[in-house]
Amino acid sequence: MTRKAIETTVGLFLLIGVAAMIWLALKVGNWSPATTHDYEVTARFDNIGGLTVKAPVTLAGVTIGRVASIGIDADDYSARITLQIDQAHDNLPTDTSAAILTSGLLGAQYVGLDPGAEETYLEDGDRIEITQSAVVLEHLIGQILIRTAEEQDR
Amino acid sequence: MNWLSRLGGGVITAVQHLGRAGVFLPGVIAATSMLWRRPGLLIQQLYSVGVMTVLIVVVAGLFVGMMLGFQGYYTLVDFGAESSLGLAVALFLTRELGPVLTALLFAGRAGSALTAEIGLMKATQQLEAMEMMAVDPLGRVIAPRFLAGCIAMPLLAALFSVVGLAGGYLVGVGVLNIDGGSYWASMQTGVDVYDDILGGIIKSLVFGFVVAWIAVFEGYHAESSTAGVSRATTRTVVTAALAVLGLDYAMTAIMFDEV
Asked: Which segments of A46-116 are extended strands (E)?
């Protein structure tokens, strides 16, 4: 192999290797440099069920953001979650409601937003006041059992 | 009492070996700076360490990806989640199998060759001849091989993952008839660029560094005999493989701690 041929193949190797890395980041990791254009709003729930960080936040079924963090509010023992929403959807009314829903019967949980009718819009750091907690299967079964027991008593 | 003293002797030799490798490393890293003036040496080594390893990495990646396609499918189909096959294959490859298997192949294909080459140079007294001519063997022989290993390894690991994903696609979409769109879509929603992709790249960087370090060290400190070179080559492959697997566990435990 001449020196020129070696240099060319090494150059090709470096190119392919770096291209593979970039392809992994862009196509597999879905990395886009513009992800910083998000704003955050918080919401409080009595029970978040099996919601996890990075779960999708949807509006009319379309994913517009992710759950950024999950914590406990020390004052009233409720769950406080932070939603990271794409800046492109900065026109959510302040009376938007949030509900924790389940995709499919036993699928992953996500946050569904339902826009209200106010003229003012949610901004970074705002709080969503109207929330609906996750449905916990055991509570549901418990309620059904109590109801059937009451009906039998009658 | 004899076995006790032999055990103690073994431990002392191992610690001494490690210490010698630690003393050796700063000299090698310092010597890499001379490669700015002689990039031709590095290119030559990138060819024999990197380019020559591409074929084995591509073939192995393809087979591992196809295997993951089958195994992932038969595991996931029980849960009705075969549409997440792309995610499973991608996480396996980018987090673990890409860096680890590439490092093992790299140690076997390139690391052993490095050790044998340097060891033979030492056994035939070429290194001493260089010193006689006031050429620093660390800069001239060791540094380009070490740096080439550090550069080539992450690129090879990325290549392994990409080819493996293609192999998983071939089996998943071509043979097992899952939807091609959901293969990519599940991957893109589930793979995190910092946790998974960057984590894998960091792993492959560390593995490349460690394997290259072990290979050049074992070669440089090989006994000057035929048997010594062969022992050093064996030690390179064994030590590098163990170091890669041990470090992989440690890094996985640290990186994915809070997830």
From this structure: 56-59, 62-72, 79-86, 97-102, 109-114
From residue B162, alpha-carbon distances to A9, A24, B182, B183, B249 in Å are: 20, 7, 17, 14, 23
For residue B192, list chain A residues with Cβ-Cβ distance below 8 A.
29, 54
Q: Which two tokens stand for residue A113?
A: 């937003």
Give the number of other Cβ atoms within 10 Å of residue A147's Cβ.
10
Report the residue of chain A nearest B87, measured CA to CA.
Answer: A28
At residue B242, the pLDDT reads 95
**pLDDT range class, residue B241, cuts 50, 70, 90:** very high
Domain ranges of chain B: 53-255
> Of B253, B254, B250, B252, which Cα lies nearest the Cα of B242?
B250
Per-residue pLDDT for A46 more than 60? yes
Instruction: Copy the structure tokens of residue A96.
Output: 């938007």
- Long-range residue pairs from A68-75, CB within 8 A, at least 24 positions apart, any chain: A68/A40, A73/A44
Contacts of B66 by beta carbon, 8 Å cutoff, 6+ apart: B167, B168, B170, B171
Q: How far apart are CA B193 and CA A20, in angstroms?
A: 14
Establish how many alpha carbons lie within 13 A of residue A134's alpha carbon, considering only the half-sphere containing its beta carbon: 21
The residue to which tokens 């979650």 are assigned: A81
Q: Which among B89, B188, B258 is the top mutation candidate for probing chain A, defined by the most A β-carbons within 10 Å of its own β-carbon?
A: B188
How many angstroms separate the CA atoms of A74 and A84, rounded? 22
DSSP string over A120-138: SB--TT-EE-EEEPPPPHH
Question: Which tokens sit at A1?
Answer: 């192999």
**Shortest Cα–Cα distance, B16 to chain A (Å):** 37
Residues 6+ apart with CB under 8 A from A39: A84, A85, A87, A90, A123, A124
Look up the ipTM and state it: 0.84
> Residue B18 pairs with which residues in a beta bridge?
none
Non-local (6+) Cβ contacts of B195 within 8 A are B255, B256, B259
Crossing angle of helices B112-123 and B199-220, rounded to 10°? 20
Q: What is the mean pLDDT of residues A125-148?
A: 86
Distance CA A21, CA A124 (A): 34
> Would you say A25 and B187 are in contact if contact means Cβ atoms under 8 Å apart?
no
Mind telling me how many Å the CA of B234 is from chain A's nearest CA? 28
